[in-house]
Design goal:
alpha+beta, Immunoglobulin-like, 2 domains, three-stranded antiparallel sheet, 2 helices, elongated
Amino acid sequence: MRTDFDFSPFYRATVGFDRVFDLLDSVSAQTTGNGYPPYNIEKVSDDSYRIVMAVAGFAEAELNVTQKESELLITGHAAPNGDADKEYLYRGIAGRDFERRFQLADHVKVLGAKLANGLLTIELKREIPEEKKARAIRIEADTAPRKITQQ
């Protein structure tokens, strides 16, 4: 079931947030697709995240993880393995090609990826630059005496 959201009332009341609404629109379109391959998104700490994707049957060479700006792209291209001559009574393990995209928040970087036991684990961390972090501003006391003038 797909529900389309109308963001036009927000466009009328905001300035400069069009990127946010475009992102929400594209994410809602992506989530209506198929659920293959299944995945989890874990929050490890305040600034660390982990994506765990079930990629049973894929070898390391058949998977590709790419980060371009604020988008993480994970693709899998199954190499032909001679299944054409097999006759399956039931085939529940999907081995089809896939492409999964994730929109990353600002300053989120991919630290690494590993494949173990059919699970692809991708470690992410938010690294906010020093100039973007909040800083305290010291308030100085005014120690100079004030002159009172009469009018």
